[in-house]
Amino acid sequence: MDFSILPVVSTLSDCITIKQKNDIKIACIDHPKASAAVSLFGAHVLSYKPQGEEDLIWVSKNAIFDGQTAIRGGIPLCWPWFGKLASPSHGFSRIQEWKIVEHRENDQGVIVQLGLSTNETTLTMWPNQFDATLTIEVSDTLKVSLGVSNTDTKAWCFSGALHSYLNVGDILSSQVTQMGPTYIDSLLGDKVCEGGDTLKIDQEVDRVYNQPEKTVLLKDEKLNRTISITNTGHNSAVIWNPWQANSESMADMADDSYKTMLCIESTLHADSLETGYSLEPNERYILTTEISAR
């Protein structure tokens, strides 16, 4: 999806402009090293193109940009829970309006930081005080860091994910390595399974790899590149492709969407809200993913 052609609302700097798509404002970054796009709705990275490369990030051509519905594709921010542990699914962060709190740039790249804090809407879904930032660093690599601070007087538990949708030329000629030997298979009732060293996708996959290496590799033969996904602060790597039947059933995905995307997610996984990571008052936690191609 080409965000560069959107109408400009305002200019923040030589490298950053705010553009509008339907009801959503998008920070568009254009730097000699790379371009990127970030929706302020959901603090949602939508694009990252190193110079001379195809986009590393996939966004559905049927994605809904109404400022209410979670955007299909990009890097959705799942917090303060991942999955269907509570309502809404994957937490409220991806359907909240975030604010730009800082931006800077130099010859090496551009950094944009977005912020979200406790408000009346979040309190109706999760009764805890917090301060969250998403820092997007655009350079030779894309680094996305979710930082959350407990500003409450009590500890609270959370889980989360940086739910990266990666762009591939053809899923059938792509493979994943370094994801670890064991996984929880959501399609088999959360059965714990053993896997091989290489994962080739030829059907629906929804797995939580619970012993991933720090860097997971996605080899894309059609686009002749390997995407590197380096994660920190995580305890698992989720790999997901909905395949044909599920793509056809989703209004915000084209019927053949599954052929050109694969999610490899930096995830802090938990089975329930109560068993998530416990953060004490005044403590801070950081979950990151860094994506590059070679």
UniProtKB/TrEMBL annotation:
Enzymatic reactions: alpha-D-glucose 6-phosphate = beta-D-glucose 6-phosphate
Which EC number(s) are documented for this chain? 5.1.3.15
User: Gene3D superfamilies annotated for this entry?
Assistant: 2.70.98.10
Q: Name one Pfam family in it.
A: Aldose_epim
Keywords (A to Z) from UniProt:
Isomerase
Q: Which GO terms describe its molecular function?
A: glucose-6-phosphate 1-epimerase activity
Keyword Iron-sulfur on this protein?
no
Family recorded in the similarity comment: Belongs to the glucose-6-phosphate 1-epimerase family.
**What protein does this entry describe?**
Putative glucose-6-phosphate 1-epimerase
Q: Give the gene that encodes this protein.
A: yeaD
